[in-house]
Amino acid sequence: MRKKLFIPGPTECRQEVLDAMSTPMIGHRTKDATALQQRVSEKLQKVFHTNNNILLSTTSGTGLMEGSIRSLTAKRAIVFSVGAFGNRWAQLAKSNNIPVDHVEAEWGQPTLPEIVDEYLSTGKYDVFTITHNETSTGVMNPIEEIAKVSAKYPNVMWLLDAVSSLAGAKIEVDKLGIDVCITSTQKALGVPPGMAICSVSQKALDHAKKVEFRGTYLDLLELNKYVEKKPYQYPSTPSVSHMYALDTQLDYILNAEGLENRYARHKEMAEITRAWAKKHFNTFAAEGYESLTLTNVDNTEKNVSVADLIKAVGARGYALANGYGNMKQKTFRIAHMADTSVAELKEYLNILEEEIAKL
Ligand SMILES: *Cc1c(COP(=O)(O)O)cnc(C)c1O
Predict the structure, then answer these.
(1) Which of 5, 56, 62, 291 to mutate to test the pocket of ligand 1 (most atoms within 8 A of CB)?
(2) What is the DSSP code (8-state) at residue 304?
(3) Whether 224 and 265 share a structural domain
(4) What is the pLDDT of residues 207-221, one digit of tens each?
(5) Residue 53: its pLDDT value, please?
(6) Do 225 and 268 have their domain in common?
(7) How far does residue 30's CA lie from ligand 1's centre (Å)?
(8) Ligand 1: centre distance to CA 231 (Å)
(9) Which H or E run contains 166?
(10) Ligand 1 pocket, residue 85 CB under 6 Å
């Protein structure tokens, strides 16, 4: 039995989006493909709140994390991590032979702007990475505060992993001065997995020219070259199916629901889930830094069997995510992102509650 997803990706996709994925294929060098790509990018600029170019990559989000840190680090990168996905940046850098330093906060805690300032003020770095929404811990970092620090260092490129938050939480790329902002289709956007999306600033594009070995498939300059070329295309065959799905879903996000309504719905779902978690368990993320798109429930006091709970809700047709990595059993995670309605979330929390009482 397929289970209804309340996990932090992939998320449930609306039928209209699934149908769009099965649109008959067109050639990727045709005028129709150019028009589709252009249309999707223009709509994505609205969701990213940016005038920067949008690049699509036929990889998952990790592809653009690798591509951006490799394409932009000429000197040394500093990775500010608050969990497993933050640590991934450091691993991507090391495996590409990119000089990198790695600062990891205690899990559950955020990256504080003072720490960013302390490291950037050394002048050692030309790239820094931040995880907006750390899916392993349920922490959402204070990017408005971090933006104020970043503004003091215009020659240091800011790469933001917004994979599990963009389109659920408002991220104003231009206002915050984010050089590369990355997301994946399968999280808050509510599109099947298989494509990554980023915005890239002109400053970052200029800086990338200083990097000699940027790779090929994930070279941001190469992707950008094709996007700026007329006609607007991609260097290799992209997932045209994802572009159809994005085209359909972005109309829904921008016109049928509206961005501000979408952000408000996510905030409401986060508040409901947090209150539920605090009533029955606890929340793992430090107070004031709880995510708007997923709640990491701290199970250490109550210590229910998360494996049994996953089985029990599974038998009722719903998926639940265990804690990430070594937080398995100590926490479990409830995603409230993409197109889940408040009513569906409440129904899910009721089912969880019933099954917890039976454990
Ligand atoms: C899911 C996720 C990733 C990885 O994205 P993929 O699309 O699976 O490569 C990276 N960072 C965060 C915060 C995530 O939630």
Answers:
(1) 62
(2) -
(3) no
(4) 999 999 999 999 999
(5) 97
(6) no
(7) 31
(8) 31
(9) none
(10) yes
